[in-house]
Amino acid sequence: MVDRIRQHLTHDIIPFWKSLRDDEYGGYYGFLDYDHNLDRKAVKGCILNSRILWFFSSAYTLLKDESLLDEARHAYEFMTEHCIDKTYGGIYWSMTYEGDVFDATKHTYNQAFAIYALSAYFEASRDVRALDLAEELFSLIETKCKDKIGYKEASNEKFIEAKNDKLSENGVMADRTMNTLLHVLEAYTELYRVGRDIKVKKCLEDILSLWADKIYNPELKRQEVFFDNNYRSLIDLHSYGHDIETSWLIDRAVEVIDEDHKLCDRIQPITKALCDKIYEVAFDGHSLAYENDRGKVNTGRVWWVQAETVVGFINAYQKSGELDTKYLDAAKNCLDFIFDHVVDRRTDFVTGSLDADDKLTGKAHNGGDSEISSIIKGTEWYYEVTQDGDPVKNLPIVEPWKCPYHNGRMCIEIIRRMQ
Fold first, then answer.
1. Which GO terms describe its molecular function (predicted)?
2. pLDDT tens track for 287-335
3. Phi and psi (nearest 5°) for 87?
4. By Cβ atoms counted within 10 A, which residue in 117, 214, 272, 313 is the most buried?
5. Residues 163-187, buried b or exposed e (16+ Cβ, 10 A)?
6. Which residues are bridge partners to 283 per DSSP?
7. Does the pLDDT of residue 368 top 90, yes or no?
8. What is the CB-side half-sphere exposure of residue 8 using CA atoms within 13 A?
9. Which of 47-51, 177-181, 236-240, 354-358 is the least confident region?
10. Percent of the chain surpassing pLDDT 90
């Protein structure tokens, strides 16, 4: 398993994302469609850039390949020179391809991913400026994105609360979400791990209590997803992918902060219950369905859900003392499904065709033409495949949410855990 994953990471995912580097305007290109047409003028999401910064930083820490640190530095420079608001603080939602502000929304989710990325970059580079910026964003979240009840969602550039349309789905408009809280916890976990600030640890302990009291539903053994301002659930929704992801991210947080093991007795039975329930209701022996929305199961096999399934089941296997081999078998079977069906094998492709002047051009997703400067190496994953493994066409290979965070992290986690 480990050799196969290492090969995929180093020969497929890393070369692909290196090829998406924009050396003219900074950062990484923001859109590649299903047919491998690259739009060099697409909006660059700051979440996408943060996740790429996290990925190359973490890959360098694992593999010690200096070229990966150079990619991380490239992403870091784009973040600090363009994505950070120098006037009001915080990170914007998205930039134009040239690095100007496109969407000035300040979302707590986005601030969290910047912290996550900066913490990883500090670990890789030992550049204390990255840690300082991560700590600044931590203070910003705690002072501007939080109230007495919990963490808020969207704000405008001056941190005046705004409509949470970016993290609301399934026909509801949520005041608070499980997803934002989860990734604040994820970010703070990494910030505490590399910085050991006691204030961060205290916030993590508070988040774990909030999660156990308000997010986790002990009767249904699942998380609720969308909430009103008082953490009342708005919809009967079981998000299979988020539950399996949460099961190991919460365990990671407890592992990092719980030096005296006081949290284990309360939290780890919950994460075990989450994973057990997912195995029971959502896993078909080879892959994981997406969600159950008011009794209707979405059977699509979305890329990030499959990646988190592998890590979640390996975590459950290891937490059992390597006694519960059904989870090891499930992880291996899901990995087989990923390699057989989810990985896009159309490799080393040219994104476009030669025009009369022998310039490489491709059709942009906004309807125009954009000049393409290089051949894209390696390969990525399809956005979604059916339960039988057929690709769902017309969904992009790269877009503001589609990046090497989930699948790259799966590779890094499994190599670290099992090598």
1. cellobiose epimerase activity
2. 999 999 999 999 999 999 999 999 999 999 999 999 999 999 999 999 9
3. -95, -55
4. 117
5. ebebbbbeebebbbbbbbbbbbbbb
6. 288
7. no
8. 25
9. 354-358
10. 90
Residue 63 backbone dihedrals phi, psi, to 5 degrees: -100, -20
User: Length of the chain in residues, anyone?
Assistant: 419
Global pTM reads 0.94
Which stretches of 145-297 are DSSP H helices? 178-195, 198-210, 240-257, 264-281
pLDDT of residue 348: 52
Structural domain tally of the chain? 1
CA–CA dist 278, 276 (Å, integer): 6
57-83: per-residue pLDDT in tens? 999 999 999 999 999 999 999 999 999
Q: Determine contact, residues 119/192, Cβ cutoff 8 Å.
A: no
Task: Give strand pairing partners of 288.
Answer: 283
71 token code pair: 């990619």
User: Quick one: tokens of 377?
Assistant: 């190496």
Distance from chain centroid for Cα 158: 26
Contact by Cβ (8 Å): 217, 223 = yes
Q: What is the CATH number of the domain that holds 380?
A: 1.50.10.10
Tokens of 408: 């790259």
